[in-house]
Amino acid sequence: MIYFDNAATTKVVKEALEVANLYFTERFFNPSALYHGGLEVKNDLNAARRVILSGLGAEGKVYFTSGGTEADNLAFFGSKKKKNSTVIISAGEHAAVYQSAQVLKDRGFEVKTAPVDGAGRVIEEEFEKMLGEDVSFVSVMHVSNESGAVNDINKLAFLTKRANPKAIFHSDGVQAGGKIGVRLSKNIDLYSLSAHKIGAPKGTGALFAAKNIHLSPVVVGGGQEEGVRSSTENTAGIMAFAKAFTLTQNSLKESLASVTEIRDFLFEKLSSFDDIKLISDAACSPYILAFASGSLRGEVLQHALERRDIIVGTGSACSSNKATRRVPEALGLSGKYLEGVVRLSFSRFNSMEEAKIFIQTFTEVYKELKNYVG
After folding, report:
1. 209 sits in which H/E element
2. Is 318 considered catalytic here?
3. Element (H, E) at 168
4. CA angle, corner 13, sides to 12 and 15, nearest 5?
5. Which distant-in-sequence residues (6+ apart) come within 8 Å of 150 by Cβ?
6. Residues 344/313, Cβ–Cβ less than 8 Å
7. Which residues pair with 63 in a beta bridge?
8. Closest to 110 in 3D by CA, of 129, 138, 91
9. What angle is formed at CA 170 by the lines to CA 343 and CA 202, rounded to 5 degrees?
10. pLDDT for residue 21 is more than 90
11. Torsions phi, psi of 149, nearest 5?
């Protein structure tokens, strides 16, 4: 099987699985327990926090969550914002951010949406025009899950703080952490991560919070995670997350070179199709390559390729539900292209041989399907 849907999830790497198994079977103690085993596990969790902080190049705290979605929710609902102030998100945000913003809107906040270009990057000039002293919270994703567009979050955070030093800047880094080099400036207040995008088990995420940021709990109970996120910590998942994060940091340069070669090859080949529009561009994260067909629906291509043992993703535009077209429409797609989105996403375990097999198979499938619908 050729698996080109790594933006959706990744397989758990052997090293992370081994670490998880250790905490499932031998070091299974509750980190809140006061006996030696519990204290040791608590120390391990704190070491895992330091691993994440080091990988982000930041100073502050790390709160472990059940995933990227909960981390985004904690950023939105746990941070202090002036009542009825303005919240800004980008038009390309993941549903976890978009829906959180809609909840704030229902609570009386004014929500503004910063436009993006055709690849999914925030248009910085338009973003800057939206800033002001009334803006209390900004959330702009680091890397788009739909197109791989990379936003200069350090610059956007600087612009935000210049307009209002008290504003909080959050970024969803789920598709960035462990994949591209991340160095958070002091203007980044909150940053979300997810474990299962980098070879660790599902069900674990993290929220980085800068030193000056105080969060109110969204999940209450026993007071774990310094009272910010109650519930007994998922020690096996967290330690596997830290292990996978370390592995990705150690192989970052090699992985980027490998996936860039794959992305560039497929970019060139797909560019030759007359009715295919490339959404991702050369400045996007090499881990994601999105395109849209003007002739065939994305889900049709997905299923046809699956029958050839090739797994790809689709843009959320494949549904007729208007809500799922939000991001593709923001990217400027229209007409049949809205229905034809396909997303390829890679990992360090993919190879050029797989890329060559993919393009050969895709070409055959595409021609066959076009003849059928034509």
Report:
1. strand 205-210
2. yes
3. strand 168-172
4. 125
5. 121, 142, 143, 144, 176, 180, 283, 284, 285
6. yes
7. 207
8. 138
9. 50
10. yes
11. -55, 135
CA–CA dist 345, 370 (Å, integer)? 24
13 DSSP assignment: P
Q: Which of 280, 283, 348, 287 is nearest to 315 (CA)?
A: 280
Cα(314)–Cα(72) distance, rounded to whole angstroms? 23
What tens digit of pLDDT does each residue of 32-71 get? 999 999 999 999 999 999 999 999 999 999 999 999 999 9
Domains along the chain with CATH numbers: 14-250 (3.40.640.10), 252-373 (3.90.1150.10)
Contact 179, 198 (CB under 8 A): yes
b vs e for 268-284, b when ≥16 Cβ sit within 10 Å of the residue's Cβ?
ebbeebeebbbbbbeeb
Q: Is 56 exposed, middle or buried (0-12, 13-18, 19+ CB in 10 A)?
A: buried
In Å, how far from its chain's centre is CA 294?
27
Cα(367)–Cα(45) distance, integer angstroms? 53
The string of pLDDT tens digits covering residues 304-342 is 999 999 999 996 433 445 557 899 999 999 999 999 999
Task: State the number of CA atoms in the 13 A half-sphere of 283 facing the CB.
Answer: 9
Locate 368 and state its tokens: 């066959």
Question: Residue 151 is encoded by which pair of tokens?
Answer: 């936003």
Lookup result for tokens 């829906």 = 99
Nearest to 3 by CA among 301, 361, 345: 345
Structure tokens at 137: 């919270």
Dihedral of CA atoms 235, 240, 245, 250 in degrees, nearest 10, equals 130
Find the catalytic residue in 180, 239, 318, 338: 318
Percent of the chain with pLDDT over 90: 96
Which among 247, 294, 301 is positioned nearest to 273, based on CA atoms? 294
Residue 201, token pair as written in the block? 């088990």
DSSP letters along 27-45, please?
S---TT--SHHHHHHHHHH
User: CB under 8 Å to 172, separation ≥6 — which residues?
Assistant: 68, 72, 93, 94, 96, 97, 139, 141, 142, 192
pTM for this prediction: 0.96
